[in-house]
């Protein structure tokens, strides 16, 4: 901690980082503006997602929804279609809901103070700090995934960044290191450092402006930090089946997911809820389930290759079944649709369910 408690060292760290950023910072489209809406949008898109994946979505999103008002007025389904393929769909649902609240309660302008920003769905302290620092030139720190990694290494922090003591120390450090009058540029610079040099697996310490003060580098083990909570190992494993009911014209049955649950607002093939049973159901059980639940008759379902997917809080294995449709139509209150995959009839579906559909629709 001495690194950050000594004001003289803090001043050097801040200046070196700003100088490094001035020379090597990446030219990204959201850095060419200080308008609150694009800054907010970029911060949400970049949560848990790399710059390369975000770039086309950022352009497309602003093209399609150039203002907060346009985003608020759009149906959620259109927003999710635009988001399709980026993952973590809850972000899009929150972004849309927040835009509606901004229009309703803030005359369509993103609020410029912390308490109001934190009331908006999907905006936590780090995102709010970034918006206020970058778009409104206020003095706030940020602590996103990249910054957690950089600071954990700078301190050689033994606590995992998301543990209670880890969070406390990292927030304190982030605040101490944010230089007065330069919070916005510092925020961009430290995120850039994490993305370009202080990478998760192979940090490029020789080129890092902080290497002379970095405790993890001094120990010769930068990649050993941040400390982990072994979350991958402890994630519960769940299982479910999906029925790909396909008619002769290749149309596929999709149903909407409950708005509030996992992948809410997206569409998927019918299936049971995730549960702990690792044994796939028998074909006749899937056949019976479709008859009971949707009034559908299908020829004997054929098992397809399983699909594994990792969510933030659990691992999921899906047992897909190809179910050739024979007769029947689900009740209208199921909100179902028959769509031909690969055409513009397709409503938004998650990355997981795209993988599932590819088990049958190879194209
Ligand atoms: S010296 Fe290495 S580990 Fe330390 S902050 Fe820089 S890149 Fe990261």
Please give a quick description of this structure:
This protein is 44% helix and 11% strand.
Describe this structure in words.
The model has no long low-confidence stretch (mean pLDDT 92). The strands form two sheets. Strands 1, 4, 5, 6 and 7 form a five-stranded mixed sheet that branches. The N and C termini lie far apart (54 Å). The chain is built from 16 helices and eight strands. The chain is of the alpha+beta class and 363 residues long. It folds into two domains: 2-143 and 164-199, Endonuclease III, domain 1 (Orthogonal Bundle), CATH 1.10.340; 233-358, Nucleoside Triphosphate Pyrophosphohydrolase, CATH 3.90.79.10. The site of iron/sulfur cluster has 15 residues, from helix 10 and helix 13.
Structural key phrases:
44% helix; 16 helices; 363 residues; Nucleoside Triphosphate Pyrophosphohydrolase; three-stranded antiparallel beta sheet; binds iron/sulfur cluster; single chain; five-stranded mixed beta sheet; alpha+beta; Endonuclease III, domain 1
Which secondary structure elements does this structure contain, and how are they paired or packed?
Elements: H1 2-5, H2 7-24, H3 36-45, H4 51-64, H5 68-73, H6 76-83, H7 90-105, H8 114-118, H9 125-136, H10 145-155, H11 164-177, H12 183-196, H13 215-218, H14 231-234, E1 237-246, E2 252-256, E3 267-268, H15 283-294, E4 297-298, E5 302-303, E6 307-310, E7 315-327, E8 337-339, H16 351-358
Parallel strand pairs: 1-7
Antiparallel strand pairs: 2-3, 2-8, 4-7, 5-7, 6-7
Helix pairs in contact: 2-12, 3-4, 3-9, 9-12, 10-12
Bound molecules: iron/sulfur cluster.
Iron/sulfur cluster binds at residues 150, 153-154, 197-198, 203-205, 208, 210-211, 214, 216-217, 222.
């Amino acid at each position: 901690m001495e690194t950050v408690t000594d004001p003289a060292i803090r001043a050097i760290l801040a200046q070196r980082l700003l100088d490094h950023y001035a020379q090597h910072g990446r030219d990204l489209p959201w850095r060419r503006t200080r308008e609150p809406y694009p800054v907010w949008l970029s911060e949400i898109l970049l949560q848990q997602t790399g710059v390369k994946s975000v770039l086309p979505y950022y352009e497309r999103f602003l093209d399609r929804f150039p203002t907060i008002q346009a985003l608020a007025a759009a149906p959620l389904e259109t927003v999710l279609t635009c988001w399709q393929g980026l993952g973590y769909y809850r972000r899009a649902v929150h972004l849309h809901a927040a835009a509606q609240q901004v229009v309703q309660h803030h005359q369509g302008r993103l609020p410029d103070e912390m308490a109001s920003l934190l009331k908006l769905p999907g905006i936590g302290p780090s995102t709010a700090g970034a918006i206020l620092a970058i778009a409104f030139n206020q003095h706030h720190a940020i602590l996103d995934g990249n910054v957690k990694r950089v600071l954990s290494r700078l301190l050689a922090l033994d606590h995992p960044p998301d543990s209670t003591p880890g969070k406390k120390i990292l927030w304190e450090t982030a605040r101490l290191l944010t230089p007065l009058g330069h919070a916005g540029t510092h925020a961009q610079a430290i995120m850039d450092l994490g993305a370009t040099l202080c990478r998760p697996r192979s940090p490029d310490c020789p080129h890092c402006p902080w290497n002379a003060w970095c405790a993890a580098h001094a120990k010769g083990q930068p990649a050993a930090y941040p400390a982990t909570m072994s979350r991958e190992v402890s994630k519960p494993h769940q299982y479910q089946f999906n029925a790909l009911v396909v008619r002769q014209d290749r149309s596929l049955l999709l149903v909407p997911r409950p708005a509030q649950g996992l992948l809410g607002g997206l569409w998927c093939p019918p299936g049971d809820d995730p549960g702990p049973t690792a044994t796939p159901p028998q074909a006749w059980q899937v056949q019976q389930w479709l008859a009971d639940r949707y009034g559908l008759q299908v020829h004997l379902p054929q098992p397809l290759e399983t699909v594994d997917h990792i969510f933030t809080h659990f691992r999921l294995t899906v047992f897909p079944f190809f179910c050739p449709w024979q007769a029947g139509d689900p009740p209208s209150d199921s909100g179902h649709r028959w769509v031909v995959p690969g055409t513009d009839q397709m409503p938004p579906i998650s990355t997981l369910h795209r993988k599932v559909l590819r088990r049958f629709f190879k194209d």
